[in-house]
Amino acid sequence: MNSSKKIMNKQNNEKDNNVSSNVSAAKGNKRLSGGGVSDVKKIIIGAVCVIIVLVLCIVVGIQQFQPKVVLTINNTKLTMDDLMYPIYERESAYLPYDEMYQMYTGKSIWDNNYMGSDRNVDSSLATNSAGLKQEIIDAETEYQILYSEAKKAGYKLSADDKKEVQKEVSKALKGLSFTQKLRLNISKSKLTKRFEKRKLADNYKNDQTKELDKTVDEKAAIKDITKKDYREYKVQCYAYSTSATDSNGKAEKLSDSKLAKLEKELKALYEKSADAKDFKKLLEDDSKSDIDFSDTSFTEKDGWSMVTDKKLLKQIKEMKNNEISDIIKDEKSGHVLFVKMINNNSQDSYKDACDSAIQTAQNEAYDKWYQGVLENYKVSETTDVWDDVKIGTVTTDIVTAADLEKMNQDSSDATSGK
Fold this sequence. Notes:
Elements: H1 2-65, E1 69-73, E2 76-79, H2 80-94, H3 98-105, H4 128-152, H5 159-173, H6 178-184, H7 188-213, H8 218-221, E3 232-241, E4 243-245, E5 251-253, H9 256-273, E6 292-299, H10 310-317, E7 328-330, E8 335-346, H11 348-374, E9 379-381, H12 383-386, H13 401-416
Antiparallel strand pairs: 1-2, 1-9, 3-6, 3-8, 4-5, 7-8
Helix pairs in contact: 2-4, 4-7, 5-7, 7-11
């Protein structure tokens, strides 16, 4: 009996142990399952975060490498890439003269006064660099607006227009290397698109200008210009100055010995002038002489800087054509000279003054019309991009002065058939 109980108790204990083991195993399996899900979630979340960071880096990277917008005209955006060619056009036009300007003025051509044609730029206040920078913005804005107006008016390029554009494209690309074109962001297709756009805008502008010119009152434009004021005296003369400018820009009187030498030389030329076949060739070698020959003119209104003494100037004005004066000493201007009258009543200055006044009136008519058109467009400039641009430094290291000289020489050789 006792033996039977022991056996039963043993079996019950084993059963309980099995149940306990199963429960523990179940609990253990449950803990293992819960920890695995948590780890997977962490891995997934981490991967998603990495992907998001990578995407953001790629987006930022793309934005960094995208051309920066400089000018927006309605929905049209012009980037720095778009403006590289207009910048190159102007820099390549002025760069060949930079060395000469530095030699004679002590300043680069970019730091001298503005030399362009933008009527919105005050040439007396702006440097050439700053003026050309504004000129680019104004010109690109005008081209885009006139192009849009031309398209709305139904303008299209003719076959001849397109041929002309292709000639301009070939000329613009000639002499540039693959690398230079790449850095300037230009190609045949890009320049063709740009020049065709410009040509259409120009055609539209020319037609508008013709109509606007008809509205200008030319008589009113020239009413204050008189033939008396603009009577022009054309003269030729040999002269020397009694003073010289020192390194500080101060005028110093020449020594007596130097003045005596110049006086003797001028007198010898004067004696030759009466029988000379060509008055312009009295000096055998002007590079070895301090006597200067001048073929010039002055008007009744402006006078002549060489002769500022009124009595002496009156004597010159009274000279007949082809008459040669005596040797004149003007103490006020500091010049000693003799003069040959070429034409004592030229109308050239009067005609030029009239043409200039009429052109000014025509420009004003166009500007007024264009401002009216401009009001229909929203134009904005990204100053934080454009402010960093300094004309004279953008493309001058891509196409140097030496490059331009070679291109010009190659073009001349091709024209002359060398």
